[in-house]
Amino acid sequence: MISRVLVADLPRHVGERVRIAGWVHRRRQLKTVTFVVVRDRSGLAQVVAAGSGWPPEETVVEVEGLVTANPQAPGALELTEPSIGLLSEPAEPPPFDLYRPRLRAGLPTVLDNAALALRHPRRKEVFTIAAASVAGFRSALDGLGFTETHTPKIVSSATESGANVFGIDYFGRRAFLAQSPQFYKQALVGVFERVYEVGPVFRAEPHDTARHLAQYTSLDAELGFVDDHHDVMAVLREAVASMASAVPAVGVVVPEVIPEIHFADAQELIARETGEDPRGEPDLAPAHERSLSDWALREHGSEFLFVTGYPMAKRPFYTHPDPGRPGFSNSFDLLFRGLELVTGGQRLHRHDDYVAALAARGESGEPYRDYLDVFAHGMPPHGGFALGLERWTARLLGLPNVRQATLFPRDLHRLTP
Amino acid sequence: MISRVLVADLPRHVGERVRIAGWVHRRRQLKTVTFVVVRDRSGLAQVVAAGSGWPPEETVVEVEGLVTANPQAPGALELTEPSIGLLSEPAEPPPFDLYRPRLRAGLPTVLDNAALALRHPRRKEVFTIAAASVAGFRSALDGLGFTETHTPKIVSSATESGANVFGIDYFGRRAFLAQSPQFYKQALVGVFERVYEVGPVFRAEPHDTARHLAQYTSLDAELGFVDDHHDVMAVLREAVASMASAVPAVGVVVPEVIPEIHFADAQELIARETGEDPRGEPDLAPAHERSLSDWALREHGSEFLFVTGYPMAKRPFYTHPDPGRPGFSNSFDLLFRGLELVTGGQRLHRHDDYVAALAARGESGEPYRDYLDVFAHGMPPHGGFALGLERWTARLLGLPNVRQATLFPRDLHRLTP
Description:
Two copies of one chain form a homodimer.
Chain A: E1 17-29, E2 33-40, E3 43-50, E4 60-69, E5 77-86, H1 107-112, H2 114-117, H3 121-143, E6 147-148, E7 154-155, E8 167-170, E9 173-177, H4 182-192, E10 194-202, E11 215-224, H5 229-245, E12 260-262, H6 263-274, H7 286-300, E13 304-308, E14 331-336, E15 339-347, H8 351-360, H9 369-375, E16 382-388, H10 389-397
Parallel strand pairs in A: 3-5, 6-10, 12-13
Antiparallel strand pairs in A: 1-2, 1-4, 2-3, 4-5, 7-9, 8-9, 10-11, 11-16, 13-14, 14-15, 15-16
């Protein structure tokens, strides 16, 4: 049997008999001829056959045929004089037409039938872009001397906060799903100086919103020997620029220097722009993030904006304070098109500072014993960030719901497929 | 302040004053002089200082000094006329000496203090080799047209079998931690044809052995449009060869064609070699795997051996039978230095075959409804494999316990750190 040719490679075989294999994307039977579009991982190809008798859409077939130039055909060529072989049973009709330019189905139907809906070229493309973005992320950090790590997802105590955590029965003991690799990546700065992890994190989000998931893919990085959070932001800029470069067709530009505004200045700007007065609030409202992004695009031509120096009150206990500005922190968010895409900052690195920070919040150090112990044994000034992959892809492609950028989403209501 | 130089780059700065930063790896105070070895992510450098007053081991410091050639010093150079700055509090002494060529501590102590033990250069190296191996795996599969995916780790029913699964309270419902991405990667063959995933899998292993973990990192791949399991084995060979090439210092050679022996022939060989008669057994005992590996090394000069055609009785229900040999399957294991490293094979791809396979095992199709549905909608012949990262690294480096190849292992007894 002649070996399989991918559809994308057909232009190199005009005039030859080849074998392609894929799914019957579309079958149109006319009076004396049938037009069949075959879909493989590389694209779509039209096959023209005399008569009828072709299997229904989504059946897997292999087709031998003559590659024939035809300016009217999609891609200006088609397969003629075909012979067909079935590689699957004739397929049952999917709950929506996969051959239409857009999936005509509501989000619940799309997600209930995710494995089929993902076959639609526009759905599929979301995840090839996500995969390329992750490759770009790793490539940037590998080039900067980072080491990739894999840390426990089953932990003995809640990491980020006591709420929103999934409990597990761990050999008869109580355990939890990790909400982030935060403590591990910090500890590993003591080993590798620079680490990253691409992996699942788990949040028992009780809210049913368009931007929260019970499991998402977190791109985490942490680095030692920083002066302050600006060293972390510089690495993040490289990572995001490399992610954007990995998907050139999307056309997002990350400026050489991403504009930056301090939280306090951002609040003043919002007050001037909107007439509202957010001063005294410890965080930014979603509408204010959008307003700041508009400002950055207008004033700096940038779709990205760093907001720095968030008040200590709203940041986690391991956040490093701004030594020059009481109440504020060496932390940042990166806004992208009106939405918080990344959170990061410098962390505390002295053991005594951790003990004091927990005491100030009225928390016992006991649940953090292993974590705190690391800081008693010599840890450099360090910081890091976490970027949600699904949020990135959704924002990049203008998808209104983060579930559209998740292969098989998990949320308050959804545990299958 | 002059910018930091990594220790590995010092040879380019002989005669210059530079700044290095890292951990006090070793401090030796003589009568009038102190020798300090500083450790950073790139290596070790000796600093020679008049007098005493240097902080204890593991304290994080920055040192400015003159790079001076000295044939007696490690690396033939040292920093003289140093001035020192503290970047952490003076460190508490670790529970073992990190500066000795080998960690003198038992495995429980090493694992109880993992974040510190990992600072030992020989411990650290295990995980830089693991990271490079994963990069090699991805690089091979990216080059072969695979797409990287991220699938749910929280699932509604046990995947591989009902046993050894962790239960979760999922918003008041019962859910489970995924034992593998098996069903998702198969479904995604219907979308991308070729997929891989690097991620955590979870096994509630009730056995306390040197080769089982409750969480490990699985390198999973699955590909469509195969003739049989040999197409899967060919991709696996490329992946493992790329992993080995990524760690050239380890010196493992993957043959162009990995030798292969059928399960039935393997049993006859074992009978001849050992005098035992394993025929009739549906699987290989660990001692028999070792014996087969010895044979492959002796007869074929290969540390890798494919055993193919395992009896259907011991393989999961989705295994494709050998159409020419009743009772046997189109499956394989890859043995590496006497241990099963990879399991894989061709899968069923017709809906009716799944229904029949489950019925033959007396299982209801209901828990597999979403999974089975995919096969009613056109799936090509396909197959795949799963490789345990920690097992690979342990075997590669001759570590007797897989926990030594895990940053922070999880097992029957261990939930921290």
